[in-house]
Amino acid sequence: STQKPTRFQTNEYADAQLHEIVKKMRERANVYKEKLNDPVISSPEGSPTASPKKPPPPPKEEKKDEKKDEKKEEKKEEAEAKPEEDHYCDMLCCKFEKPPLLKKYQEYMKLPDTIDSYTDRRYVAWLMLVTIAYNWNCWFIPLRYVFPYQTPSNSIYWFVIDVICDLCYLCDLTVFQPRVRFVKGGDIISDRVETKKFYYSTVKFRLDVISVLPFDVLSFFFGFNPAFRANRMLKHNTFFEFNDRLEAIMEKAYIYRVIRTTGYLLFVLHINACLYYWASDYEGIGSTRWVYDGEGNMYLRCYYWAVRSLITIGGLPEPDTLFEIIFQLLNYFMGVFVFSSLIGQMRDVIGAATAGQNYYRSCVDNTVSYMNTYSIPKLVQNRVRTWYEYTWDSQGMLDESELLEQMPTKMQLAVAIDVNFAIVNKVDLFKASSGCDTQMIYDMLLRLKSIVYLPGDFVCKKGEIGREMYIIKQGEVQVLGGPDGTKVLVTLRAGAVFGEISLLAAGGGNRRTANVVAHGFANLFILDKKTLNEILVHYPDSEKLLMKKAKVLLKQKGKPPPGPPVQQPRGLASLFGQKPETPKLFKAMLGGRGREGLAKLLQLKRQQATQVKPQKTEENKSEAKKQANKKTFKKETKDEPETKPKEEEKKPEEPAAPTAPPAQKEEPKADDKPAVMQRTTSKESLIISMTPSPRAGEGEILKVEIKEKEKK
C-alpha cells in the first residue's frame, strides 16, 4: 500500500508574527551596528536606573509599628483580592451577577465633586432638562392665567407637571450649580467648598432661590391662581447658559440660532395673543367689532389676530372705545420694534452662517475679473475655477493656515500632531523610532504646506532641481517614464512619500529622474529645503543623523534595477573566474564600439598578412636586389606626402576646443582596395584625459582631444 505524503499546514497568524519579530530583530541589529560605527547616534534604549540604596535597619519600636502597618496592608490586599461584590446583588439568599456594562454606566453617571461646565456633556444634558421646565412655565403660566383652560377636572394633571418642574429647579439649585467650577485669577478652582462659596455669592443664586419659593401655598387661602407661579420665570440665566453650551458643542450652531430666533418670534406672538384675549374679556366678549366674538377656537383666533396686528399686516376692524384705541396703538408700536429687531437678528444669524460661502464667492469673482482683464485663455480660466471648486468642497476653506494662525502655537501644534504626525512618521528620514528628535518633528509639522493639484498637473518634472519633499495626503500621483515619457512606472497613493532625498542632498539638490503627474485631484503636503535648514539649525545632532541616513537612502535608491539572471558557466568553465569588463580607455581607443572596432583591426591584420606572404617566396634573390629595393622604398617614403588612414577611428569632439576642427571623413569607394595598416605620421596629436562628473553618482568622464602639432 502506498502512503500518501503528509501535508504540513502553517498558521498564517503565527507566520506573520514570526516575520514581524525577525524584522524587528534585524532593525535592532542595524541600529547597534550604526551605534558602533558612529558614536553620535544615541541608543534607542533608555539608560538603566540606579538601584535604590537599602535603608538602615529600624529600631525595635519602629519594627512593631511596621508589623502593625503590614497587617493592615495584608487585610486590605485580602479585601481587594476577594471577588468584587459590586458586581453582585443579594436576592433570596442568592447572588446575581450584575452586567459590567451596568457598572460602567453607574460610574459614568456618578456625579464628580466638581463639574467642568465647558466639557462635561452630562451637565449640558441637565441644563436641557431645566430649560424645558423653564419654557413650560414661560409659555403656560400666561396661557393658564388668561384663557380658561384649567378646570377643576384637569387640575391634577397641571399640578403633577408643575411639581416635576419645581423638582428640576430644586435639584439644579442644591446639586448641580454648587459643583460648577469657576476661574479666579487665571486658575480653575475645583475645590468643592470654594465652588459652593462662589455660587452662593452670585446674583444667579439669589434669582434661583426666588424662583423656587413656594408661593403656590397661597392657593389654599385665595384659591388657585397661576399668577402665584410667576416667580418661576426668573430662572432665565440657566436658559441662556444652555444656549451658549449647546452652540459650543454643535458642528452647525447656526441651525440652532435660527430655531431659537424663530422661537423668540413665536413667543412674542403668544404673549400678544394672551394680551388680546385679556383685553377682549375686559371689554366683554363680542361686545364690539374689535374684540374677540367668542366663536371658534379662542386661542387660534387670538393668535391669528396677534400675527396680523404685530407684523402690521392690516385688515383688522377699527377700534371703537378709548381703551381699544390705546391698546391697538401700543400693539403697533411694540410690533414695529420687536419685529424689526427679530428680522435684524435673523439677518445676522443667516449672514454668519453663510459668511464662508460669501468669502469664497467674492474670491472667485475677483479672480475671474482679473483673468478677464488680462485676457487669460479660457482653458486656464476653467482650470482655475475647477481648483477653487474642489478646494472649497474638500476643505470647506481656501487656506487652512489662516484658520490656525488665530490659535496659540501650542494649540496649532496639537492640531498638527493629530492631523499630520501619522503621515510624517512614515517617512524613513523622520521616523521617531530611528533616533530623530521628536521636538524637531513637531516643529516640522507646523511648517508643512497643503497644496491641491488638478488632474494632469505636473508635481515635478524630469531634470528639475529637487528642493521639496512631497507627502500624499489625499488622491493619487503617477510616476511616468519610458522613451516618450508616457509610461506609468508606479502609482503612489495616500500616505506615500517621494522627494525626501532632495532635502538633504549636497550641492544644492538632486535632479528629478522622472515626471510625477497627478492622476486625479491630489492634496499634497510640501516641505522645502530652506524650511528644513531653518529647523535643523537648532538640532545639530538630528542634522548629523539625517545626513547619514540620507547617504544610506541615496545609495539604496541609486542602485540600478535588477536585470535578468546571469547564466552560470557550466563544466570546466566554472573553475575560472568571470571575464573582467573591458576598460573604458581601451574601448575609447577601439573606436567606442566594442567588438566592432576589434574585429576591424583583426581583419586589417589578416589582409596585411596575405600581402606579405607572396614576398616570402622571393627570399632566394640576391642581397643586392634587396638592398636596392630598400633604397627605392626609402626614396618613395621621403617623396610621398603624408597621408591619413582611410578608415579613421571615431573620437568624441570637445566643444570647448574650437581651434581643433575635426578631420574630414572620406567616403570609401567601391573600387578601392581593402585598407592596409601602414605606419604613417600625422600633424595632429591625441590627448586623452579623465575628469570627474559634475553630477553626483555618475563617476568620471573620458575626454579625447585632437590638436595640431606646432610648426617649428
Structure description:
One of its GO terms (biological process) is visual perception. Residues 33-80, 555-578, 605-712 are annotated as: Disordered. It is found in: Membrane. The chain has 712 residues and is of the alpha+beta class. Among the domains are: 121-342, no CATH class; 409-557, Sandwich (Jelly Rolls). 49% of the residues lie in helices and 11% in strands. The chain has helices at 12-37, 60-81, 100-109, 121-146, 155-176, 192-200, 203-211, 219-222, 236-249, 253-283, 298-310, 322-353, 355-373, 378-395, 400-404, 409-424, 438-445, 529-536, 540-558, 584-589, 595-612, 623-639; strands at 88-91, 94-97, 182-184, 187-189, 449-453, 458-460, 465-466, 468-474, 477-481, 487-492, 497-498, 510-511, 515-518, 522-528, 684-692, 700-708. The strands form six sheets. Strands 5-14-8-11 form a four-stranded antiparallel sheet. Strand 9 and strand 10 (487-492) form a beta hairpin. The longest helix has 32 residues, at 322-353. It is elongated, with a radius of gyration of 48 Å. The N and C termini lie far apart (102 Å). Residues 40-54, 59-64, 79-93, 559-563 and 632-681 have low confidence and may be disordered.
